[in-house]
Each structure stands twice: as C-alpha cells, then as structure tokens.
Amino acid sequence: MRITSLLVVPWIATQVLLARAAVPNCPYQGPAFAKPKQLAKSAVMQAALANLTSIINAWEVAPANNPSTATWSVQIFAASDEVALWEHHHASATLNMTINGNTIYRIGSITKVFTVLTFLIEAGDKYWNLPVIDFIPELATIVKTDVSDRDPVMNVDWAHVTVGALASQMAGVVKDYGTMGELTQVVDEVTLRGQGFPPVSTQYIPVCGEFIHCTRKQLFHGLQNVPPSWGPSQSPGYSDLGYALVAYALETIANKNFTVMLHEDIINPLGMTHTYYTTPPRNVTGIVVPVGNGYGWTFDLGQARPTGNMYSSVNDIATFGRAIFNHKLITGALTRRWFKPAGLTSAINDGIGYPWGVRRIPMGNGNQGHRVVDAFIKSGNINQYASLLVMIPDYDVGIVILMAGGMAPNANWDLADAIGATLLPALEETARLESHMMFAGTYEDTTTNLNSSITLSTDPTRPGLGIDRWISNGTDMYWFAIQYTLGYQPASPSIRLYPTGLEAVVNGTAVTSYKAVIEDLAAPSRSNRTFSTDCGSWTMQSAVLYADMPLDQFIFTFSKDGKNVTSIKPLSLRADLAKIS
Ligand SMILES: *[C@@H]1O[C@H](CO)[C@@H](O)[C@H](O)[C@H]1NC(C)=O
Ligand SMILES: *[C@@H]1O[C@H](CO)[C@@H](O)[C@H](O)[C@H]1NC(C)=O
Ligand SMILES: *[C@@H]1O[C@H](CO)[C@@H](O)[C@H](O)[C@H]1NC(C)=O
Ligand SMILES: *[C@@H]1O[C@H](CO)[C@@H](O)[C@H](O)[C@H]1NC(C)=O
Ligand SMILES: *[C@@H]1O[C@H](CO)[C@@H](O)[C@H](O)[C@H]1NC(C)=O
Ligand SMILES: *[C@@H]1O[C@H](CO)[C@@H](O)[C@H](O)[C@H]1NC(C)=O
Ligand SMILES: *[C@@H]1O[C@H](CO)[C@@H](O)[C@H](O)[C@H]1NC(C)=O
Ligand SMILES: *[C@@H]1O[C@H](CO)[C@@H](O)[C@H](O)[C@H]1NC(C)=O
Fold first, then answer.
1. 506 close to ligand 7 (CB < 6 Angstrom)
2. So what's the pLDDT on residue 293?
3. For a designed S-S bond to 577, which of 162, 385, 443, 496 qualifies (C-beta 3.0 to 4.6 A apart)?
4. Quick one: pLDDT at residue 290?
C-alpha cells in the first residue's frame, strides 16, 4: 500500500458520492445484509408471495405443466419461522385425496443430502480426503488383485478415489451399476442384437440390478468390470453409485448400520414422522401413490438406497432444512464448509458440492453488479416422482418441491425458476429494509464530549450498510480511512459494511461485527479483462490496523430485548457511539 500526501485538505465525503461511479460495489461473498428475521411480517414478502400464488395459478392451468395425473406440493421455508412462508398443493384429477404439507412423496436424490449429512454428523468431513479403499475392504482387494492387468484407462484407480470425491460427484466412476441405464437389465437379447449390439461374454452381463437387487458381494464383483469415466477429481460426473459407497464407508468408520444411523441421527431427533428410508406401510395416511403402483412407488433401490430411496413430505423436508440452517445437527463451521463448492462445471454460474449443485445467481446490474447469491440445490427424479430442494444460506431460506405422476421433464426446475425470479429480489429487499430499520441512522459519542459520530444508511441499489459520514474527535475519519486503505482520494469513494455472521452475548447483551469494504468506485471497469477483476474486496480485509484493531471492523450492540441497535464501535477507535436517531 502507498500512503501519499496525507496533508491534502480533507473534504466532505458525502459530496463526492454524487460523482458517477465506474464500477459496482464489490461486497464480500455472502449476505449483503443481516439475515432477515421477520419475513412473514414483511409487506414486500407478502406482495411477492401473493404474486407467487398468481404465478403458480397461471402455471397450473398450462396443460403442458399439468397432465391430469400430476400432483405436487411446494413450500418456501425460513430458518427463523416454524411456519411455512408459503405453500401450494395440487392434487391430480384422478387422485381422490387431499394433498397437504404432510403428504408423502418419493424424494429421489434428495436422499443424497440425508446420506451426506448422516456422514457429517457421525464422522465430520475429515475423511473427505482419505482413499475409500481404507474403509471398503472389497475395493482394497480389487486394488491388490491382478496388479499387472490394471491400467488406468480401463480400471478405476480406487487407491486414489477419496470418500469426498464420491460424496461430491468427483470420483470419475460410472453413474450406476446394474440399474438405470444397463440395457441388459431391461431390453431382451434378441431386440438388442437387432439394434446392433453384439453378443458378449456373460461375465459382463450383470446378474442383478433393476429387478433382482445386487448383494454387496455382487456389486463389488461387478464393479471390477466397469471402466472409469475419468481419473479421480478430474471432472464432475454424476454418480449414484458414489453415495452407496459413501454409506458403506461410513458403516466401517462408525461401526454402525447406515439405516440405523440415518434414523438415530436425523429422522428421529427432528421428529420427521412422514419420512421413510424404504416404502412406507400402506396404512400410513397421506401417501401419494398415483393410480395404484404404476408409478414406481414401491420400487426399491436395494444396495443403492443411500442414493435415492427415501420418501418424505414438504413439511418434513422444511424441518430438515431449518435444522441445517440452525446448526442443530452439525456445527456452524462444518455447515459453512458444507455450503461451499467442491468443484466447477462447464457452466459459468455453476459448481458442485457434497452432493449439492451450486448455482451462483447474479442479483442485478449497475451498482449491484457484483452481488451474487449462492444457492445449494439437490434435485431428484425416480420413476414418476420429481423433487427439488433449494437452500439459500444468505437468507437461511429454502424451497422444497415434491411432485408425482408424470410431470413434464424438468417441471421441478421450471417451477423453482418461476418462484426464484420473484422470491430472491423480495428476500434481498426485505433483508435491506430490516437492516435499514435496525442500523440506519446517526450514532454519536454521548459519554465523553468528543466530536465523534457515524451516519449509516441503506440504498436499494447497493449492497450493505453505507457509511455516509464518519467523524472522529473532530476529524473526517471517512477521508483518513480511504487514504490509509487506498493510498489516494478517488473521485467516488465508498465505505460499506457487511455482516460477518459473528455474534456473541457479552454481559447479557448481544453484539455482532461487521466488516467494511473501502473502495474506489471511479476505478476503471475490468469486467472484460482476461485475468484481473474489479471485485477483489476480499484481498483488502483488515488492510489497515490501529494498535491491533482493524480500521474496517465495527461492532454493533443491541438492546436487551434484541429489537434495536444501541451503539456502534469502530474497533480501531475504541469509542462506543450511541444510536441517537
Ligand atoms: C408483483 O407483481 C407485480 C405485477 O407483475 C409487479 O409489478 C410487482 O413488482 C411484483 N411484486 C413483487 C414484490 O414481486
Ligand atoms: C373419494 O373418496 C371418498 C371418501 O373415501 C369416497 O366417498 C368417494 O366415493 C371417492 N370418490 C371417487 C371418485 O373415488
Ligand atoms: C441395518 O438395519 C436395518 C434396520 O434395522 C436392517 O433391516 C438391516 O438388515 C441392517 N443391515 C445390516 C447390514 O445389518
Ligand atoms: C401399519 O402396518 C404396519 C405393518 O405393515 C404395522 O406395524 C403398524 O402397526 C400399522 N399401523 C397402523 C396405524 O395401523
Ligand atoms: C482528541 O483530540 C485532541 C486534539 O488533538 C487530543 O488532544 C485528544 O487526546 C483526543 N482525544 C481522544 C480521546 O482521541
Ligand atoms: C465536528 O467535526 C466535523 C469535522 O471536522 C466538523 O465539520 C463539525 O463542525 C464538528 N462539529 C462540532 C459540533 O464541532
Ligand atoms: C462485563 O461487565 C463487568 C462488570 O460491569 C465489566 O467489568 C466487564 O468489563 C464487562 N465485560 C465486557 C466484555 O464488557
Ligand atoms: C465488454 O465487451 C463487450 C463486447 O466486446 C462490450 O460490448 C462492452 O461494452 C464491454 N464492457 C466494458 C465494461 O468494457
């Protein structure tokens, strides 16, 4: 950092903010505002949710979206609210039953989220980088056998496939074994011959899979035949098989039965009474079996259960989602690691996680151009059932969609997109308005007689809390903060505060910290550059300290009832400034 001519006469920063900006604000990754806590009461949310009802009503009457056999349940839930923010249920014309939040559907691959969470509860993520052969003896045996015959083009390099790679679709192994896509299981030999498939040695024809479940022994025997798709950690490649292996590895690590762990760690403690690992008994009320068993209700995945066999309701999935956001089953630190990408896909806004699909959603143009909301998503499809779970940690809000009965392909995604376009802007605006009520205003030194104050505001076109004016002991601290951080005075400086998520109760009083981004909005845009960026705020955090305390860090103190902010402390300046308006 260069510090030049601190002797230049300071000017009032607010005048400068009127200058035309060349680059958008660059917030820290993560929420732009404190997570909203009063979503149900927000007028903006109520308007958005009313709009959603019109949107889904219009969606529902489009014949392409709504074949006569289709049934669905949709719910939007928030960690701060035990009651659903919004829900919608649709019963098919042929289904003679009432559909509600407790109606049970197959959830398909949302099961993978349960499998990974069971792993995290039992073992944490410290096993992610260990080879799976340490925990699955059959795979260790494959590695040891016929070493000379094993080449990396035709044989999976099990010795280097990690548990985490399997849990995040990065193992480079086949999608399934013996089921879903294995032609010899579902098409007869004569037909296959007629279609140009040659006769093959019976050793390559799975003896189990779609109709007869593979035993554990048969599965690992068969896995010796299949080639790798890629080497470990080369490229994302969806693999249902991976989650069956993750569950086997966990059984070794925890020395417990996976089914038992799933129930004891998640389903029972959360009271998910409408959630099942295998087909619910027929006497359970409220299950969706559209038109008899023709829709694959009872089809069991056998050894592949940990990848997609579960049944649940939107109420139960919402309970599950809230427990994740509220850190009920694993720690906050582990949860935050879980909500990070494990890899990238070829789509610029997409990544993968454990087992999430990650979607980076740009929240706007102009001043908001660098505000991105990251969503962690798992979709499912099994027979005639489709599902989707969207988790949005920036707001601790989720969407769950469960569908049955011959929906149009991607109906789960289409519905989520229709909801998201209205929901996300409303969540951001609600968060801003809550933060405005809570934090905006003037704070002054009322204990000593120093001329020290800070004025904060929000702006619907910008992320975070803006510092409009910052005086310390009669000097323009806004000017000095810019000068010490950037080394010069730009035509359009900006200081905005973002929540760190750090919260504590000190002497019975709640406190939280915010981190500032001090930036030059008049800097030339780098949006088309090859390597450089105009959004590198994260590299500048804590760049300037005064006597151990960062200049960019601020502590807010709340009233005893937690409803108001009483003061702000710029950490480096050691002064508590009371909120006076
Ligand atoms: C609701 O829909 C109306 C009409 O399309 C639109 O003008 C308004 O901005 C929407 N409000 C919210 C909060 O989505
Ligand atoms: C629907 O269920 C009700 C109650 O079980 C029954 O009385 C009615 O006859 C059923 N209707 C049809 C069309 O099956
Ligand atoms: C695990 O527990 C379930 C439920 O009790 C049981 O059905 C299953 O056979 C057990 N699996 C093994 C491998 O013991
Ligand atoms: C439902 O059936 C199962 C056996 O399939 C039985 O164990 C259970 O008690 C029954 N529940 C009710 C409420 O009848
Ligand atoms: C305030 O500024 C005066 C004048 O520079 C200085 O003497 C005094 O120590 C300062 N007090 C505090 C608490 O910063
Ligand atoms: C406090 O300091 C600011 C910045 O130097 C100055 O503009 C303002 O007039 C001062 N206020 C009082 C009451 O002295
Ligand atoms: C808590 O209160 C006690 C007694 O008033 C005080 O001595 C102590 O410094 C306070 N702790 C903090 C962290 O403010
Ligand atoms: C980026 O490049 C595109 C296409 O060349 C151009 O239209 C656009 O104006 C450029 N944007 C900036 C900010 O330079």
1. yes
2. 56
3. 443
4. 60
Q: What is the pLDDT of residue 132?
A: 98
Question: What's the gap in Å between 451 CA and the centre of ligand 7?
Answer: 25
In whole numbers, what is the pLDDT of the chain averaged over residues? 92
Residues with CB under 6 A from ligand 1: 44, 47-48, 51, 422, 426
Whether 456 contacts 468, CB under 8 Å: yes
> What is the CA(510)–ligand 7 centre distance, in A?
13
Q: What are the pLDDT digits (tens) for 351-371?
A: 999 999 999 999 987 778 899
Ligand 8 centroid to Cα of residue 293, in Å, is: 56
Ligand having the closest approach to the CA of 471: 6
pTM beyond 0.85: yes
Q: Which H helix or E strand runs over 377?
A: strand 372-382
> So what's the pLDDT on residue 64?
76
Q: Is 475 in the pocket of ligand 5 (CB under 6 A)?
A: no
Q: Which amino acid is at 479?
A: W
383 CB burial (10 A radius; 0-12, 13-18, 19+): middle
The set of residues, in sequence order, having a beta carbon less than 8 Å from that of 319 and lying 6+ positions away, is: 270, 271, 272
Whose C-alpha lies nearest to ligand 1, atom 14? 48
Is 164 in contact with 128 (CB distance < 8 Å)? yes
**Which one, of 375, 382, 415, 416, lies nearest residue 397 by Cα?**
375
Q: How confident is the model at residue 147 (pLDDT cuts 50, 70, 90)?
A: low
Q: Which residue's CA is the nearest one to ligand 8's atom 3?
A: 528
Contacting residues for 110 by C-beta, under 8 A, at least 6 apart: 310, 312, 317, 378, 379, 380, 387, 388, 389
Q: Using CA atoms, how far apart are residues 356 and 342, in angstroms rounded to an integer?
A: 9
Pocket of ligand 4 (CB under 6 A): 281, 283
**Relative to the alpha carbon of 47, which ligand is closest?**
1
Measured by CA distance, the residue closest to atom 7 of ligand 5 is 473
Closest ligand 3 atom to 257 CA: 1
Strand duo 553-558 + 565-570: pairing: antiparallel
Among 19, 106, 89, smallest CA distance to 309 is for 106
* SS3 (DSSP) at 24: coil
- Longest pairwise C-alpha distance within the chain: 95
Query: Is the confidence at residue 13, as pLDDT, over 50?
Result: no
| Per-residue pLDDT band at 406 (split at 50, 70, 90) | confident
112-128 per-position pLDDT tens digit: 999 999 999 999 999 99
- By residue count, the chain amounts to 581
Cα(20) to ligand 8 centroid in Å equals 18
Kindly give the number of the ligand 1 atom that is closest to the alpha carbon of 54. Answer: 2
| CA of 429, closest atom in ligand 1 | 13
Tell me how far CA of residue 500 lies from CA of 33, 116, 131, in angstroms. 10, 27, 35
C-beta pairs of 281-286 under 8 Å, 24+ apart in sequence = 284/104, 286/97, 286/100, 286/102, 286/103, 286/104, 286/313
> What distance in Å separates the CA atoms of residue 401 and residue 388, rounded to the nearest whole number?
5
Q: Which numbered ligand comes closest to the C-alpha of 475? A: 6
